[in-house]
Amino acid sequence: KGGIIKKDWLKFDEINETNKNNEFWFIDSAYGGSDADYNAILKVIKKNNLLIIDKCYINKFEFPELINYLKNIIDRNAKVYIEGKASGKSIIQTLKQQSNFNIIELSVKSSKIERKHSVSPFFESGRIIINKYIDNKQDIINQLIFDNNKNDDILDTIMHAIETLLIKNNGNYSFSII
User: Fold this and answer.
1) What per-residue confidence (pLDDT) applies to 33?
2) Cβ proximity of 68 and 12 under 8 Å
3) Which of 167, 157, 124 is nearest to 57 (CA)?
4) Which terminus of the chain is more solvent-facing, meaning fewer CB atoms within 10 Å of its CB: N or C?
5) In the chain, where do the E strands start and end?
6) What contacts 65, CB < 8 A, 6 or more positions away?
7) How far apart are the first and last CA of the chain?
8) CA-to-CA distance for 101 and 74, rounded, in angstroms?
9) CA pair distance 78, 16, nearest whole angstrom
10) Residue in 41, 39, 40, 44 with CA at minimum distance from that of residue 24
11) What pTM does this model have?
């Protein structure tokens, strides 16, 4: 049934959204190699007060291969959020130099369990929709409903997406000069 996030809270649906302006990418990177954690790459769509998890890629690419992979799957001028720790710092620097992506560095200020508790109401209320045809569906389910998984890379990207697009300023950033 699940831990903090319950399995019956997960909502799957067919996705037909094509508005590129509402499309965002989240990356949780790892150092490459067969014993390393996975790189998790998540494409989400924000539609009104909903967050749609559209695509999910996981791999164990080493740095150069990961950079090339990202350039091939992410659209030009996309907004890309990357966790700025470990290999994420180098990925941020490289993509800023070598791509037209709009790169935003993310940081984490609380524990994974605290973060999972803070995003769980979005699942319970049905504001998170997962593409029913998404790759790695079982990995996504497992990382969402089981707490303290060894692999939590997809979970990190999902939590970043919710925190950034639904919690912080509701994804709308406005600036003023005082």
Assistant:
1) 66
2) no
3) 157
4) C
5) 11-13, 23-28, 39-47, 50-59, 79-83, 102-106, 128-131
6) 32
7) 50
8) 8
9) 19
10) 44
11) 0.90
